Amino acid sequence: MIPLPQVSQVAQTIQLALAPVFLLTGIGAFLNVCVGRLARIIDRARTVEQLILTSRGKEHDRMVGEIRVLDQRMTVVNASIFLSVASACAVCLVVILLFAGNLFGAHLGTPIAVLFSLAMLLQAVGFASFIQEIRLGSKIIHVRNEVLFHKVEEEEGA
Fold first, then answer.
1. Measuring CA to CA, which residue among 77, 76, 66, 3 is closest to residue 35?
2. pLDDT digits 0-9 by tens, 76-86
3. From CA 118, how far away is CA 99, in angstroms rounded?
């Protein structure tokens, strides 16, 4: 028969698991930001797709360039989301192993440390991917010179 842990042992394990749970909250908030950006990228891509079909010349070329960058951004944001979810799964396993180690008296310190390090590495790469997406986004958001320096022609007879 497996000896049941004392309430104090469970309370101590909950205290140990609190930091990873807060980390999960942060990862969740980050995922919310990523999903919001992905939705805006998709909306813009749908708009540009419609505009490409009716545009010609330089405007058409500009739209094609923009949709290519939007496609890259979708790929990069999806990678960031994947890495963050994988990080969250690793954190969940850390919490599970903390409780399993306490419940069964197993020495799981090494797997817990490895999983937590893996979670941090995955999240760091997810953040780096997010930075890449932000840079791609800022590359196509520049206001064009013809708009910046546009002058309204004066009406005749004014």
1. 77
2. 999 999 999 99
3. 19
In this predicted model, what pLDDT tens digit does every residue of 126-138 receive, in sequence order?
999 999 999 999 8
Q: Is the entire prediction scored with pTM above 0.85?
A: no
Write down the pLDDT at residue 78: 98
Nearest-5° Cα angle at 116, 114 to 80: 115
101 close to 107: Cβ distance less than 8 angstroms: yes
151 vs 52: CA distance, rounded Å: 26
CA distance 108 to 101: 6
Asked if 111 and 93 count as a contact pair (C-beta separation under 8 A), the reply is no
Determine the Cα–Cα distance for residues 98 and 104; give it in Å rounded to an integer. Answer: 10
Give the model confidence (pLDDT) of 32-70 as tens digits: 999 999 999 999 999 999 999 899 999 899 899 999 999
Q: Give the DSSP per-residue string, 96-131.
A: HHHHHHHHHT---HHHHHHHHHHHHHHHHHHHHHHH
Q: How far apart are CA 128 and CA 158, in angstroms?
A: 56
